[in-house]
Amino acid sequence: MPAAPSPRPGAASPDARRPAADPWKVDLRELGRRAGSMRDWKKTIPAPERWGIELIGVPEGAPVELHLRLESVMEGVLVSGEVDAPVTGQCARCLEPLSDTLHLHVQELYAYAGSTTEATSEEDEVRRIEGERLDLAPLVRDTVVLTLPLAPTCTPDCAGLCVDCGERLDDLPADHSHEVIDPRWAGLAARLADQTDSAEGSQPGSTRTNPEEN
Ligand SMILES: [Zn+2]
Ligand SMILES: [Zn+2]
């Protein structure tokens, strides 16, 4: 760990900044502006809020592992590397809770204020360096959200729920089925069943084979 550089004339003292320290904001003073200088940046930091979409996301406070390289280039700082983020959610087919780890690759240029890149880009087209800091959270959040599946599943071939009883099909025997009677005939079927109970005989078997009816 190199010694902290002495504060520049007129800059706020390092101590004054410390209380608000956000672990997602990388202090660039150690990197320097000389093009080509590099720094490996490995840290595990908690997600500052839930990053996700409806059914799945990185929970707030979950440990996000960052294995990044910061490289000083002419226009700013190039951030590249790998991010591992735990995700939790709900299966879109059977609604069971699920958890997984997202493995992401990121590569992004953060532009210096006053650089050509900054001057020629729209406000939302390029990430910017704020003072001496680079905020990794929006980059990781955007990458996470774009990577998450809209319809996550607990297993790749989850069969979902039985439309009749709502049970998870993967938990039921393979021959699970319900004998469904058209609702328009349900009343008639019930009357026929009653008649059959009192007078055994000329009944088509269908309504009698299912003991769950009645
Ligand atoms: Zn499922
Ligand atoms: Zn069922």
Task: Characterize the structure shown.
Helix content is 16%, strand content 29%. The protein is of the alpha+beta class. The protein has two domains: 14-147, no CATH class; 179-208, no CATH class. Strands 2, 3, 4, 5, 6, 7 and 8 form a seven-stranded mixed beta sheet that branches. A two-stranded antiparallel sheet has the order 1-9. It is rod-shaped and about 95 Å long. Mean pLDDT is 83; it is low at 9-13 and 201-211. The chain binds zinc ion (2 copies). The site of one zinc ion has 6 residues, from loops.
Bound small molecules, deduplicated: zinc ion
Order of helices and strands: HEEEEEEEHEEHH
Q: How many strands?
A: 9
Class computed from helices, strands and strand pairing:
alpha+beta
Question: How much helical structure, as a percent, in the residues?
Answer: 10-25%
Low-confidence stretches: 9-13, 201-211
The total count of helices amounts to 4
Mean pLDDT rating? 83
- Rg calc: 30 Å
Beta-sheet strand percentage? 25-35%
SSE order and pairing:
Layout: H1 14-17, E1 25-27, E2 38-46, E3 51-52, E4 56-58, E5 63-72, E6 76-90, E7 97-111, H2 116-119, E8 127-128, E9 133-135, H3 137-147, H4 183-198
Parallel strand pairs: 7-8
Antiparallel strand pairs: 1-9, 2-5, 3-4, 4-6, 5-6, 6-7
The structure holds zinc ion (2 copies).
